[in-house]
Amino acid sequence: MNIDRNLRTPARLLLAVPVAALALSLAACSASRPTVDQVSDGLVKFMESQGQGDVFTEDAADCFAGYLVDSKLSNDTLNYIAQGKDQASSTDDADLTQKILQDNYDECTA
Fold it and tell me: Which residues form the signal peptide (predicted)?
């Protein structure tokens, strides 16, 4: 009987449990909806990267972020925005983002 072989199988199974848990937790993180504060921070970060941080206030970012998070935008697109990226998960999301920003511009920048 090969004792070494019998010990490796349980060890492999035990190693598979944390790997599977890590994969599931990473998948859950990417699918979760960011908060208004996270989206607001991402908007500020993006505007600063474009050289417009001094004209785009945190109040405006908070206002826009509220509308964005309450919309039908996908979690992926909102996560891109929260990271300060000018990116959308689909053309529909890109169009909806533009519409939300345009429709609420007067209110959020007043």
Answer: 1-30
Asked whether 43 and 34 are in contact (CB, 8 A), the reply is no
pLDDT value of residue 52: 85
Q: In whole angstroms, what is the distance from residue 70 CA to residue 104 CA?
A: 13
The CA distances from residue 51 to 14, 45, 57, in Å, are 51, 10, 13
What pLDDT score does 56 carry?
85
Single pTM value for the model: 0.71
Query: DSSP secondary structure string, the chain?
Result: --HHHHHHHHHHHHHHHHHHHHHHHHHHHHHSPPPHHHHHHHHHHHHHHTT-TTTS-HHHHHHHHHHHHTSS--HHHHHHHHTT----SSHHHHHHHHHHHHHTHHHHH-
With tokens 């199974």, the residue in question is 13
Find tokens 């209110």 and name the residue: 107
Q: Look up residue 104 and give its amino acid.
A: N
